[in-house]
Structures are given as C-alpha cells and as structure tokens.
Amino acid sequence: MSSDLLDLTVLQRPDCASMLTTAIEWKGEPSLVPALLAGDGAAAIFTKPSLRTRMSFEAAVASLGGLPISFSAGEVGLGGRETAADIACTVASTLGVLAARVHHHSDLVQMAAAVDIPVINLLSDESHPLQALADLLTCVENWGALSGRKIAYVGDGNNVAVSLARACALTGMTMSCASPPGYEIPPDIIAEVNAESIVLEQLADPLAAVTNADAVYTDVWTSMGQEDESQQRRTAFEGFMVTAELMSHAKPDAIFLHCLPAHRGEEVAADVIDGPQSRVWQQAGNRFHAARVAIAWCLDPSGLIQ
Ligand code: CP
Ligand code: NVA
Fold first, then answer.
1. Residue 32: partners with Cβ closer than 8 Å, 6 or more residues away
2. Which DSSP helix (H) or strand (E) runs through 292?
3. Residue 270 and residue 49: Cα distance in Å, rounded?
C-alpha cells in the first residue's frame, strides 16, 4: 500500500532511519536505484516559485525511471479553474504520483483524500518535509549518528522550522529556536514534537539558541506569499541575522545550514553563508536524494526497511 507524504508526522522513527540509510546508499551507488516509476510518471504542481524543489523532484522522478511533468500556477488554476480534488483525480487517471507546492496546506489534504496515488508536499504554508529530509541527510553526512546533536534555528518559526523540528523529533536531536515575539513556532507544533521528550525549546535570544549548537540554521524572514509584510518583518527580525560573531558562540566545528533562497545581509551575513562552515550547497544537492527516497517510500513504505 502506498502512502502520502504531506508532513513528516506520517513517518515513524524506523521509516526515517531507513529513508536516510537508503538515500545515502543510493547516493553512493546509483546502480542500486530501482526503476520504480518505469512506464509511469509524476505530476508536480507549483503555485509558488521554485528552483531547488522543482529541479530535484523532476530529477528524482527521472532517476526512478519515470516521466516528470511540472505545472505552474497559471497552467493548473488550482481553486479557480479547477478544484484540488478534480486536479488530483485527473492526475491519478494518468500518472502514479502527484506532488504540489501550495499556499494552503488544506489543498494537499483535499488532493490526498480524493485519490489513492501518493500525494507529496513540495512546500505548503505549514511545512516543507522534503527540505527537512535533505537537511537530515546533510547532517548525517557531516556527523554520522544524529542522536544527541543540537540544531539552533534562528529566525521565523515558519514551514521550514516546523518540518525541521519534526525531523529532530524523529532522529533524537534537539532544536533551539530563537524568534522575535509573534514569529515563534506555533504552540501546537511545540506540544506535538515535545510529546514524548523535550525536543524543541522556543527562545527569544539568538545567542542563547546557538550556544553549544552543532548546526545553525536560518531561513528567509519573509516567506513566499508574505511579501506585503516584508518591511514590517525586516524591523521585527532586527538582531536575528546569523553573523560570524553569532556563529562563534556555537560549537567550533558547527555547520551553517539554509534551505535557500538566501538574502545576504538580511537573515545571514555573506561571510557565513559563503564561509567554511557553510554546507548550503551540499544541502541543496541533497534535495535530489531526499526527493528520490521520499518517492520510493511513498510508493512502498515497507519496501525500504532493511
Ligand atoms: N529550498 C527550496 O525549497 O527551494 P525552492 O523554493 O527553490 O524550491
Ligand atoms: N519559508 C520559505 C521557504 C522557501 C524554500 C517560504 O515558504 O518561502
């Protein structure tokens, strides 16, 4: 039986562990990658801009032997020209996987409810699970075992932060998030990830968050769809830029992560993102490996367990 991947909440710890192991195996030995989508394909609908997600998802579908077909917002007209459910049923009539980047997470839920083929979240207002899987892969490549590691996230408690917190909960890591008042990770998410043990602490002070961290992570202050708030956000996030000085309070060998796109001089200083601690290009490259293993898991969730 296949599965959707709307959020990392669908994964149990063994699922996540086998996805990471398999992704690293396939990255090292591409001949091991099965042609799971041979004779089939996947539709990817983008109602917001994308470079990394579109590129990595299309490359992942092709690598699994399938045909990727991407659509922009105007081509599909989600919610205007056609309902989310009707779009999903149309894709399912022809292709084996549907993925979408949406403004409203509820559109993904409606798509998933309408069809039996896997529906994959390519970023919504609530979460960005494929990004978090790529982040985990990057951490594994840098550290080996993840359990006990600490990630500091400095900035907006947004979709990327939510998925990163869930990724930490799945792998035994902790996350210290520093955000200005009003921009914290939503309380229900904090309660969710802390249900079994304390994974996430929400702070207001970036210095407190990065102290002793193994990785420092940030994302844009203004996410796609929030452009009207950008000036207000620039003011609210003053003092939240990841600078070399802030990095110096993390562990000496701490790595810097950013999902990209980045704004040098806003959420991150140029000498950090372009400096020796930065792993952002490795992280971007891991989007492909994360997408590939995510599609494989969705097609057959038990098939990756070794
Ligand atoms: N990180 C990420 O999702 O990048 P894109 O918006 O370019 O897809
Ligand atoms: N939080 C950002 C992530 C971009 C990949 C956004 O939603 O625009």
1. 25, 26
2. helix 280-299
3. 23
Residues of the chain with pLDDT under 50: none
What structural domains does the chain harbor?
Answer: 8-128+287-304 (3.40.50.1370), 130-284 (3.40.50.1370)
DSSP sequence for 195-242:
SSS--EEEES-HHHHHTT-SEEEE--SS-TT-GGGHHHHHHHTTT--B
| CA distance linking residue 245 with residue 232, whole number of Å | 25
pLDDT for residue 304: 84
State how far the alpha carbon of 159 is from the alpha carbons of 114, 141, 165, 245, in Å: 24, 24, 10, 27
Tell me the pTM: 0.98
Ligand 1 centroid–CA 280 distance in Å is 12
* pLDDT tens per residue, range 28-40: 999 999 999 999 9
Q: Give residue for tokens 């994959």.
A: 120
How remote is the CA of residue 229 from the centroid of ligand 2, in Å? 14
**Residues that are catalytic:** 101, 128, 131, 219, 259, 287
Pocket test for ligand 2, best of 54, 56, 105, 224 (most atoms within 8 A of CB): 224
Residue 306 near residue 71, CB atoms below 8 Å: no
Question: If you ran DSSP here, which 8-state letter would residue 67 be given?
Answer: E
